[in-house]
Design brief:
The structure holds 2 protein chains of 2 kinds. By secondary structure, chain A is α/β, with parallel strands linked by helices. In chain A, about 40% of the residues lie in helices and about 25% in strands. In chain A, strands 6-9-10-3-11-12 form a 6-stranded mixed beta sheet, with helices on both faces. In chain A, strands 2-1-4-5 form a 4-stranded antiparallel beta sheet, covered by helices on one side. In chain A, helix 6 (about 160-170) runs parallel beside helix 7. Chain A is globular and about 55 Å long. Chain B is of the alpha/beta class. Helix content of chain B is about 25%, strand content about 35%. Chain B has helices at about 1-10, 35-45, 50-65, 100-110, 140-145, 155-160, 160-165, 180-185, 425-435, 440-455, 460-475, and strands spanning about 25, 85-90, 125-130, 135, 150, 190-195, 205-210, 220-225, 230-240, 245-250, 250-255, 260-270, 280-290, 300-305, 310-315, 315-320, 325-335, 340-350, 355-365, 370-375, 385-395, 400-410, 415-425. The chains are: A alpha/beta, B alpha/beta. At the A-B interface, helix 3, strand 7 and helix 4 of A face helix 9 and helix 10 of B.
């Protein structure tokens, strides 16, 4: 099955990527390739660099790439602005979605959706057409219409914020979605809603990277690959069984891999 | 859709109202003395009571000192180096718009304020003021059918002298402050509005003030009277060319609302602000005050202050009538080296009076933005209430924001509530919006509009869109 997938070109290639913030090295040579239809999970202790990796792929200005390349659909995107990456189809689901007082969620979603549509040479949507579209997408994450009239993420519960992230993913239809601890802070019901949302949105043409600490999200969405990160590097890659083993043995077990590498 | 495109379009534009109209003007010599005041009064063929009003004000002004309590720093103004009357030359008496110099009509066309019959705005009556004189007022006949008087104050002096004599200076007396005294002595033109009893003005009224001349000051005077159970919405816009000298603008606005009357006064102030090094720009020293004279009367100020090198302005309400209501909604944005010291005074005199203050200050660049407000409950203001909310937003790390709320209560049975906050646009918020494909500049303007939403909601619709555009334009290049 895997070899069949690889007949197409990769969506994302991270090649020997090193990065730092305030001269402090965070990533120390990460390589990762995602093909269409693949789901990758990245696991690891707090501070191992998994969130940093996701932010760097999305173009966060606080990090400097010191070595290596990020390629998206074959093009080097090291120097692209975050908005250019987003418009071309890279989506980052935030671990802690940011509150933006005064900016209506509906308007935010519409402007964002239209930025992506413009890139795809699709017609931009006016408020009425967008209303139609967003109504359908709301069903995917079982969100109430009332969320739209509130300010972006302001006063949202943890679960509501995460569902709002998946709603954005549904509207933007990205080529690759990097979901940073989307499962953290969710109760079982919310986790199921979020997981089924992700499954509905993804297809054979999209790639997904799930960053998580826990097996429970991976019970809902089975990954093709599991990568374990430690100290800014991927120290082990395996299939979905690797996550199960990790769940059983704990991260202490992976400390041995660090020593080996 | 439309709105966001506009924002995108304008962020790259420089100050687009900075042109000068090349027109022959009639100016008097520089300087200020009794003879100059007599000359202005004579040019305007004024009755004696008005000349006396001016001369009395001038005497008071001479004894007064320029205020220095505001949080502003600027070079001393030389009042003898200013021309106090400047008017485009035109025929003696103009009976219709056809006789107005086409260059003037063209100027207002360029400013987006077409005046001619064919092109005039369909739902707003406009009084266009160019330097010291009113050029034209549209829709006068239509308004007259409703008994509404809307004309320049010079005409009102001629045709409605009784109303002028009765009300002029009753809200802002000449002795009120230094700049009000100066204005009372030398004011040239401005707008006059009279809404008769029981009439809801059928359209918005608007004045557009244009400074064209670099060395003359503009001293306009506006007087609005709303009789019992009447209502009016009035809009004011201002622009000026780019000169490397500072031009003084000292206006006085007086509003009077009788029983059950309501006046809504909205301003978008976009005088030339000076360049990035702080060279040039308008010195804007304005006294605006409304008197809620009648029971259940209401005066609402909303302002978007984006221009001027210096802004010194406190639109206020005197709440005399029982259950009268005063409101102040303000957005003040400063960038580069602009300085603004603005706010309001809500003086509760009558019982059960109510006031609301919502102020949003945005400081970018090296600018300085202060809110200064007074809420006073008099001895008779039993059961009165005030709510104030003053928020500041800082953009970059060189700008400053201050809040100076003054509260004086002589009435234990009254409520005063004050909330204040300061925030900064964070890198994380910007990254979040950008990571959803929204351009950097648009992300900033979205957040700024969001911050100002409570105030924009109070503006008439066309004005709200205009204000949104203006803010985006003013902030261009100020972040990052």
């Amino acid at each position: 099955m895997q070899s069949k997938m690889k007949e197409s070109d990769p969506i994302l290639e991270v090649e020997n990527l090193s990065a730092s913030t305030d001269n402090l090295p965070i990533l120390k040579g990460v390589s990762l390739t995602v093909y269409p239809g693949e789901i990758h999970a990245i696991m690891g202790r707090n501070g191992c660099g998994k969130s940093t990796l996701s932010k760097i792929i999305a173009g966060h200005p606080s990090y400097n790439i010191t070595k290596g390349d990020i390629k998206f659909l074959g093009e080097n995107i090291n120097s692209l602005e975050p908005e250019e990456r987003a418009q071309s189809g890279i989506f980052l689901g935030f671990q802690y979605p940011i509150e933006i007082p005064g900016v209506s969620n509906l308007e935010f979603l519409r402007v964002s959706t239209n930025a992506r549509r413009k890139f795809l040479n699709k017609e931009e949507l006016d408020t009425f057409d967008f209303e139609e579209l967003v109504k359908k997408k709301l069903e995917i994450v079982k969100m109430d219409h009332a969320f739209l009239s509130r300010s972006v993420n302001q006063g949202f519960s943890g679960g509501e914020k995460k569902r709002n992230e998946i709603l954005q993913m549904a509207l933007l239809e990205p080529k690759i979605a990097i979901l940073d601890e989307t499962d953290s802070g969710l109760d079982i019901d919310a986790l199921r809603i979020v997981a089924s949302g992700i499954k509905k949105i993804s297809n054979t043409q999209t790639g997904i990277i799930l960053i998580t600490h826990y097996q429970r999200l991976l019970d809902e969405i089975e990954p093709n690959f599991v990568h374990v990160m430690a100290d800014g590097k991927i120290i082990k890659t395996g299939g979905s069984d690797l996550a199960l083993e990790l769940e059983k043995k704990g991260y202490e077990w992976t400390d041995n891999f660090v020593k080996e590498t | 859709m439309v709105k966001e495109n506009l924002v995108k379009d304008v962020v790259k534009e420089p100050y687009k109202y900075g042109f000068v109209t090349d027109i022959e003007t009639e100016k008097i010599e520089k300087g200020l003395n009794e003879d100059i005041i007599k000359l202005i009064s004579q040019k305007k063929e004024e009755p004696k009571f008005l000349l006396d009003f001016r001369l009395k004000a001038f005497k008071k002004w001479q004894k007064m000192k320029e205020p220095d309590w505001a949080s502003l720093g600027y070079k001393k103004i030389d009042y003898q180096d200013i021309i106090y009357y400047s008017a485009p030359k035109q025929k003696e008496k103009i009976s219709s718009l056809d006789e107005v110099d086409p260059k003037l009509l063209e100027t207002f066309d360029k400013l987006g304020i077409p005046l001619t019959e064919q092109k005039k705005l369909s739902n707003v009556a406009v009084d266009a003021v160019f330097d010291s004189v009113s050029i034209a007022t549209t829709f006068r006949e239509e308004l007259a059918e409703h008994g509404v008087i809307f004309c320049s104050i010079s005409e009102a002096v001629k045709n409605h002298a009784d109303l002028i004599e009765k009300y002029l200076g009753t809200v802002v007396p000449a002795s009120d402050n230094y700049f009000a005294a100066l204005n009372s002595a030398v004011f040239s033109d401005g707008s006059f509005v009279y809404i008769p009893k029981g009439v809801n003005c059928p359209m918005d009224l608007s004045s557009y003030f244009r400074i064209n001349s670099g060395d003359s000051g503009q001293f306009e005077r506006t007087l609005i009277i709303a009789e019992e159970s009447s209502s009016v919405s009035y809009l004011e816009g201002c622009t000026a060319p780019m000169f490397d000298t500072n031009t003084l603008h000292a206006a006085v606005v007086e509003l009077i609302a009788l029983d059950d009357a309501s006046i809504k006064y909205s301003t978008v102030q976009n005088w030339y602000a000076g360049d990035e090094e702080g060279i040039g720009g308008i010195f804007n020293f304005v006294t605006k005050r409304g008197k809620c004279l009648g029971k259940r009367s209401k005066i609402s100020w909303s302002q978007v202050e984006t221009g001027s090198a210096i802004t010194w302005k406190y639109p206020s309400c005197l709440l005399l009538g029982e259950e009268s209501v005063g409101e102040f909604y303000s957005v003040a944005l400063t960038n580069n080296l602009q300085q603004a010291d603005t706010g309001t005074k809500m003086i509760h005199i009558g019982p059960k009076t109510k006031s609301t203050i919502v102020s949003k200050g945005i400081s970018a660049g090296n600018s300085k933005n202060s809110y200064r407000g007074l809420v006073k409950m008099g001895t008779k203001a039993k059961g009165s209430r005030n709510y104030s909310q003053c928020d500041s937003m800082l953009i970059g790390d060189q700008a400053s924001a201050n809040t100076f709320p003054y509260i004086k209560s002589q009435q234990p049975n009254s409520e005063i509530e004050h909330e204040a906050s300061t925030c900064r646009i964070s890198e994380d918020q910007l990254f979040y919006l950008q990571s959803r494909g929204i351009e950097f500049e648009e992300s900033v303007s979205m957040m700024v509009s969001g911050f100002c939403r409570d105030v924009f909601n109070q503006l008439p619709m066309e004005f709200a869109a205009e204000a949104d555009k203006l803010l985006a334009l003013k902030l261009e290049g100020s972040v990052g």
